[in-house]
Amino acid sequence: MKTRTCLIFFLALILLPVMTVAETVYPSYTYNEWDESVSTPDGYDVFATVRSAQAEGGPWKGPQDLCVTDDGRILLADTGNDRILEYDRDWHLKREIREVVIGGQTIPLEGPNGLHVSEEGLLYAALKTSARAVVVDLETLQGTLMIENPENALLGDDFTFSPAKIGADNAGRIYILSTGCYSGFLQFSPQGEFMGYYGANKVAVTPEVLFNYYWKSIMTNEQRQNMTSILPVEYSNLFCAPDGFVYATTVATSSPVNQVKRLNPLGNNTYFARGEKEINFGDEELAVTAQGAASSTLLPTFVDAAVTKDSEFIFAVDRSYGRVFERDRTGNLIAVFGALGNQEGTFRQPVALDILDGNVLVLDTAKNCVMVYAPTDYTRLVHEAVSLYNAGRYESSRTVWNEVLKRNSNATQAYAGVGRALLKENQHEEALTYFRLGDSREEYSQTYRIVRLDHLRSGAVWFIGALAALFVVTKVVSVIRKKKKTDEDQKADGILVRCMKKLHIPVHTVFPKAVFHPFLGFQEIRFGEEKTYLWGAAVIAVLYVLATIYQYVGTGYLFNENNIADINLWLLLAKSLGVLVIFCAAQWSVSILINTSGRLSDIILTACYALAPYTIAIFIGTWLSNYMLLDEMYASYIITLGLLWGVVILLIGTITCHELSFSRALGFLLLTVAGMAVIVFVGVLFYTLLEQLITFLSTLYVEIVFRM
Amino acid sequence: MLNRIWFILLIVLCLLLPAAAVCEWETVAENDRLVLAYDPQESQIMLTDRVTGEIWRSTPEDIAQDTVASGMNKINRQSDLIVTFHNPTYVTNQVNSYTGSIKNGDFTWEKIENGVEIRYYFPKQGFLIPVRYELEEDGLKASVLSQQIQENVWTLSENPEDIEKAASGKDKQSVMTVSLLPFMGAAGTGDEGYLVIPDGSGALIHFNNGRSSAAAYQQDVFGRDSTLSVKKAATRTFQVNMPLFGMIRNGFGMMAVVDQGAAQAQLNAAVSGQLTGYNNAYFTVTYISMESNTLMAGSSSSKSVTLAANTFRDMGDFVVRYYLLDKENADYTDIAALYRSQLKLTDHTGTPAGTQLKMVASIPSIKTFIGIPYNSVTVLTSYGEAADVLTDLHQAGVEGLTLQYAGWSSQSVQGRMVTGLDLDGRLGGQDGFNRLLSAAENTSSGLTLSVDLVNLYKNGNGYWSLFSAADNVNSTARIMNEYLMSTGAQDPSGKSWYLLRPDVVKDAAEKLASSLSGKLKEHTGVTLTALGKTLYSSLGKNGISRTASGAYWQKAFEALQTSVPYLTAETPSSYAFPYLIQADGTPMASSRYDVTDTDIPFYQLVVHGAMVMYTEPLNELGNIEDAVLKMAEYGVYPAWRLIYRDPALLSGTDGADWYATSVSAWREDVIRVAEQMKQLSHYASMSMTGHERLTADLSVTTYENGDRVYVNYGNTDAQEDGITVPARSFTIREVE
After folding, report:
1. Is residue B251 within 8 angstroms of chain A, CB to CB?
2. For residue A236, which of A228, A247, A224 has the smallest C-alpha distance?
């Protein structure tokens, strides 16, 4: 029994299927509608770990690349040992390649750093140590092409050729990543002639770049030379896929988007999500690393990518967070696996990645091992569904998506998939629900257009009927009223106006008869005999606060990016009531300063009355936004209109109450805004100081308690 | 030329020196089976098995051949103690007994009954650590006499003048940790065998497995002290749930168990090539923990300071017992059997063993009323609905159902402490609950109500964070946080909560026990979701050590055991074993640290038969079929997390992590897996006596009565012992 155990132990070491376990050591997650990480079932399990010490032909020394051939052989660039090892799919050593023959001359493989095997069975190897790239037949190890010291005017005189990674497309064009070259990949013809740069990363135009451009134009040559030049981002690796595209990973980028690119033959990035949206291949949530007082965001650093044969799924491994991301060709996140750590399936320094029989192989040069990840049953389902879906077979994808949803209700993509299928089956209402759950706004909008039309059609009779009834009723009522009113000699007031009267809000303030009596309402306040009450204004202020909350919560899905669970009532209160209070305080201060005739009550009343149309507009607009499509911005037009109306009232109120001319009133308002800025500034300053004081006091308390 | 000769001479001398130091072994104790010898020269011990002739030494014999070790590690091999300590400014340092004491003869020893007591004096660090090695019937008892450890001793003279003189200008060094017998039984590169590590389900570290670049194994027994803050939570780990390690060396077995002070012990293991040329494992006792705190956090003058926690030496002696297995060709199952016999667990009685349903009754949520949001509770599975599910599944043929019911109480759903049967009107109140009870009775199902007792999410119901929270190193309440799955960093918008102080945990448990007393029928009870796996101290002023917490926990378990007929816990550690009749969320794998080789069902070998074990919810796994096979191999039964109502209710709540919960969607799977596992249900009351992995794809598990369960993970049928095990399936071979 003992010998048997030992035997099995060694078997297990070399030949793999170490049973996958129930749970992986790294978290499996996806991102929800608000880009927050949420759990999912495990996407990939560690199927096996091939460790250098136990591998046939091992130990390896600082291996840098891994390449899987079409027939399932694995080539490993054992860089430190100056050789390439060829394994079969079960990790039995087939060949140890130490040299190749180029045109009769034996070339040793010195520091092989990048490998590629074409469909025709040609091995492309970038030999970093000897600054060469060779192309040989994989079987005979003989070839005719060796690239050494390429010379071209484009390259310049001080160019040093340091081939790190290599690839070749269907047409045999060779792409080489040369370390220290920031202009893109070097592109060579199948005959080895330098053709130019490929996929040059463009410098993003930021204000800083523009400023530097301007600055440089006025500097002397010497100064210019001393200035660090802004370099385009550098590539870290490439993968030439069967679909003819070159998938490239970048390092040292300034933002997390477009870190993995799909370059077309012209060298332009074509990897974008639906609606030309840029793809953030790695994490949405990023860690902040604090070094002393300065903190910076840790961006993902992708070091290698690989694509499935059908170009449906793209894998890339990120060294910063130690994760492999899988996305489909429209950028949807399929799976995340791996982590930094010292457990099986975690990385220390991943350098290369490839796909073999649906399993993902990741080479870690620090751990000196290859980890083999196998998709779980759950991920297989997702793959099947995505393939069906992207092939346009929505109906058949629906059952698979439903199975995915059963196992993962956080799979937003699955909801959208089911929604699509439902749409095809003309089940619009149901499709809406699923598009909503799948956070697919565009499709939601398109479907809602149909649903809304249906509603209108089916409800049209009722709608028109109700309208007619309303018309008749109002007519009848007004006729009766008129009869009564002739007695009381009163005008017929609308319900709104009556409400305002009850609240002692002069009618002409909020609804000035702009043409006839623009100033009447405010004159009533300022000079009128009848007393005005502040509590009318208070009601408007309260309604305004409610409107802000309603806008946050109640805006239609298509226009609402808020997560209701994240609502912060204090923040909303500060945004609404806070601004109002600051405005009043600022205007009062300014009015005292420049000695206008307005009283504080006038200022408050003016501000509140000015808010009334805005408040009403928010209510109406927010309600309406629930029935609008993405391209119908009417709701926001209404709200803007309300705001403009409010500004007009504010202006009129200011002119009247403070007895200013139009231009002076305008200036007065501008001064108020400046005053508000000052108040906010002081407030922020005070808040920061207070916060520091509190931190200080609490630290002091902690210290005292600790020392006691 | 002369120089060269001198040089060669020097080298020869150096090589000869270790050999020249001839050991003078003195027998200090012996019995029928074992002999304990002590070498007063080098202060090392040797345990000889008279029957097998196997020798277990505290320091390896042939250290000269080890070329891996360097620096401190080199001398550690000759030491029976490694001590870490800190100075008044919390700078830590390490010293071993060889350099610090043995080399210059600064230790004294005396023979005691059955053994030897050695008092190591470290003149440079100023402390005195007495240890005791005593021979027992089946092994060795090694103790660090914690309470006799002295610090700030700068001379052994008792003259006060001398003491004052010696102490002048010296800083007190405080002993933080002591590693006991780090190289006891250490195996060299020529030895064959493995270490058994009770991490999660259990793992083996084969000797000389070549993982020299991996980190050595180092984990706290019973998990990390949750009172100490966590910076990052990037990966999932299982904890060491039993205070032991085993070693199989050339077919002979040894098991080391921490007998006293387990709650403050740390398990270490290394293979040759990592630190030294030896494969070794040992325990370290922690008297003082260190923690770095950030002062003035969030401001530009924020600063990280390291603070030392209280000195906890209240465990009495720190005792590790080394047992020698009295058989040849021993393996890990023998170690499990030995540990099992020591735990003296009572055999499992006829509680249901079949399928566990983890149902969630309700969850806090945010709802809106005409646009205004407010805190509310969303009902996911009312009492009546849970009853319906039990009845339905029972009628569909699922036997041995047991329902673990979370969020069932009006208090617990809000995160307050549960102190009694606080039924929730929204869930159906008393009437609904009675319906659930009778459904459980009619279907002979078990019912356990989830109770936390550790995490204080919300104040109220008699427990307030201001008075009852466990403290940090700096005497302020320890605030627990959530961590992001993506970055592993603290979730800025996540929940924060407190830990109940250990003595309050005991009070809360007793309060709950007394209010439940007599109210629960047979097969109804409580699941402790945290108490079985979380053991923590309270630091700062009036600190409570993990050892003292362990005593409170024991009282809590005792109180609950007497009044609750059906007590279970999530992922219980060994301190909880005696009180439980069921283990939920059993670990099915180890943390798979790079240094370990294979996972084994060590936990299951120890526990099986004494408790019914259920898995983590199957429906949340990526590979359900694999998990079913593994359950058959490990003797564990299926569990499912389910809610009755629409899972869409979970979106935007804390339940978003339950991503596969719909009863209607999973009903068929529950029935199918129950049907598959049915034939294994009667093994629940038997102990598991053997486990072996026959090939990479085939395993066999043996039960008390001799029945063997073969599990084939492969995609082709397997032949073994004359029977065929179909691909991806399992077969039972009953004993004739």
Report:
1. yes
2. A247
Instruction: Check residue A2 and give its pLDDT.
Output: 42
Token code pair at residue B301: 């003058």
Phi and psi for A597 in degrees, rounded to 5? Answer: -90, 0
B651 to chain A, any CB pair closer than 8 A? The answer is yes
d(Cα A16, Cα A31) in Å, to the nearest integer? Answer: 33
**pLDDT score, position B594:** 92
Domains and CATH numbers, chain A: 2-218+229-375 (2.120.10.30), 385-492 (1.25.40.10), 501-694 (no CATH)
CA distance A29 to chain B (A): 7
In chain A, residues with a C-beta closer than 8 Å to the C-beta of B660 are: 41, 406-409
Mean pLDDT of B248-257: 94
On chain B, the residues whose CB falls within 8 A of the CB of A695 are 296-299
Beta strand ranges found along B40-114 (DSSP E): 44-49, 55-57, 81-86, 92-96, 107-112
For residue A617, report the phi and psi dihedrals to the nearest 5 degrees.
-65, -40
In the stretch 583-602 of chain B, residues with CB closer than 8 A to chain A read 588-589, 591-595, 597-599
Residue B184 has pLDDT above 80, yes or no: yes
Min Cα separation A185/chain B (Å): 32
Alpha-carbon distance of A615 to A611, in angstroms, equals 6
Touching A: B residues 36-95, CB under 8 Å: none
Distance (Å) from the C-alpha of residue A416 to the closest C-alpha of chain B?
15
CB contact B619 to A (< 8 Å): yes
pLDDT tens track for B579-623:
999 999 999 999 999 999 999 999 999 999 899 999 999 999 989
What is the rounded CA–CA span in Å between residue A45 and residue A376?
Answer: 6
Domains parsed from chain B with CATH numbers: 32-295+303-343 (2.70.98), 355-453+524-537+565-693 (3.20.20)
Top residue of B291, B380, B594 to mutate, by most chain A CBs within 10 Å, is B594
* pLDDT bucket at A318, cuts 50 / 70 / 90: very high
Instruction: Please judge whether B540 and A2 are an interchain contact, meaning their C-beta atoms are less than 8 angstroms apart.
Output: no
At B160 the three-state DSSP class reads helix
Lowest mean pLDDT among A387-401, A504-518, B428-442, B524-538: A504-518
Residue A95: strand pairing partners: A86
| pLDDT greater than 50 at residue B500 | yes
Q: Could you tell me if B479 lies within 8 Å of chain A, comparing CB atoms? A: no
Pick from B311, B315, B331: nearest CA to B243: B315
Looking at the DSSP assignment, which residues form a beta bridge with residue A313? Answer: A328
A366 vs B213: CB contact, 8 Å cut-off? yes
Kindly give, in sequence order, each residue whose CB lies less than 8 Å from that of residue B553, ignoring residues fewer than 6 positions away: B502, B505, B506, B531, B535, B575, B576
Instruction: With CB atoms and an 8 Å threshold, state whether A15 touches B296.
Output: no
ipTM of the complex: 0.90
- In sign, the C-alpha dihedral spanning A655, A658, A660, A666 is negative
Closest CB from A4, A19, A40 relative to B659? A40
Nearest to B592 among A6, A343, A554 (CB): A343
Nearest-angstrom CA–CA distance, B413 and B422:
11
Beta partners for residue A290, in sequence order: A295
pLDDT of residue B10: 52
Of A341, A408, A708, the CB nearest to B659: A408
Closest alpha carbon within chain B to A692: B299
| Contact between residue A217 and residue A206 where contact means Cβ atoms under 8 Å apart | no
Q: Which positions in chain A touch B237 (Cβ < 8 Å)? A: 25, 343
- Both tokens assigned to B124: 């440079």
User: Which among A117-121, B160-164, B253-257, B695-699 has the top mean pLDDT?
Assistant: B253-257
For chain B, the distance separating the N- and C-terminal CA atoms, rounded to the nearest angstrom, is 81
